[in-house]
Structure formats: structure tokens, C-alpha cells
Amino acid sequence: MTGSLSSSSSTCRNAFENRVQETKSSKSDINALILDYLTMEGYPNAAAKFSREANLQLHQDGLCVRQRQVIQNYIHGGNIQAGIEALNELDPEILDEDKALHFSLLRLQLVELIRSCNDVGDVGPALKFATEQLGPRAPTNPKFLEDLERTMALLLFPPNALEPQLAALLDPELRRSAADSVNKAILEKLSTRREAAIRHLVKLRAWAEETAREKFVSLPASLDIGLHDDDDMHEENASI
């Protein structure tokens, strides 16, 4: 019985992989996806180099890509004020029109000030910033107020005794999330897509697999995202 199930599973996988090979993307399509990712995510030097190597035309003006990269680097590095100033130089309307994004950046700036306070023991700069910049904005939105209250709670506990919800505010992931939101806002303002095409394709693939399984379409028990090289695939097939 076990042998029969194993044989059936192997047959299903082989049939599926044959269909995959029949619709395999061309190298030029893959190169276009890579260039799109490098451009949309803000890697101008890598995008320019890859476009030359792959003989492809850049999708966006190099200056714009570099400006987005500079802004993201500021935020990734915790220099939120410089990031806000650079964003306003690029397009002052973005933060004027997106109150939620502006508040999230200001809150992140407060988090960085609190991080500095923990190092030097002076909470004055953080309290002053919260009072002047976040205090007037918080009452306009219940979520703003909740986020501000949670952030201010960082001042009440030592960094090594924070609850997970508060500790998450000091995690570098908050910077990455903010930088990603800013990048998407800039792209949207430029009337382009908000994210790289490959991100959309990954989401579409996950949706397609889920839909197929719900309809009991014959598929292998598990499907890889498809990023293995040929050697990896040979090893995986040999283990089935």
C-alpha cells in the first residue's frame, strides 16, 4: 500500500514537472524580472550594471532610483530626520497627502530618540519631540493615539525587560517596514507600480496553488517556489 502511494505521488510530481518545463520562462523574461526588482527596490548601481550585462533598457531614470535609495538608506540606518528631509526634497506632497505615513515616520523617529535616551539616560529630547511633533497629530486618529501611547511606554521599562509587543518597536524590522512603505509611496506618486513584479508573481503563485488545491486539482504534496538551481533539483528528485 505504501509503495502504491509512493508511486502515485511520484507520477503526479513527474507529470506536474513536465508541465512546468513546457511553460518554462525564457532567460530574457527572467532577466527583465531581475532588472525590474533591482530598479523598483532602489538598487541603482546594481540595476545599471545588470542592464548593461543583460543588454536591457533601464525602466526608470537613474537619478530617481538613487534618490529612493538614499532615502531608504537613511531610514535603514535610523536617521529618520534626514530621511524625511530627503523625501520632502524629492516631493513634499507625499507626506502632506499621506498622514499615516508621516505619522509612522515621526513615531519611528521617536523610537530612535528613545533608543538614544536609553544609552545616555536623558529622556528630555524624546519627551520634547513627542510633545511637539506627535502630540498634536495623535488625537486626529485613534490608531495614532494608540501607537503613540505604546511608543511612550518604552520610557517606562528597561530595554531588557520589555514585553514582546514593546520590544518589537526596537527591532530593525520596524525600520525596514517604514523604508518599504516610503518606497511604495514614492513609486505610487510616480504613477508606477507600488512593488516589483516578482513580488506580485509570488503572491499570484501562492493564490493559484491554494485555489488549485481547494478544487482538488492533481498536484504534488508540496511545491517549491522554484528558486533551486539544477543541481538542487536533481538532488531533490533523487530523494523522492
From TrEMBL:
It comes from the Eukaryota. InterPro entries: CRA_dom (IPR013144), CTLH/CRA (IPR024964), CTLH_C (IPR006595), LisH (IPR006594), Ubq-SigPath_Reg (IPR050618). Residues 75-121 form the CTLH domain. Pfam families: CTLH (PF10607), LisH (PF08513). Involved in the proteasome-dependent degradation of fructose-1,6-bisphosphatase. This is CTLH domain-containing protein.
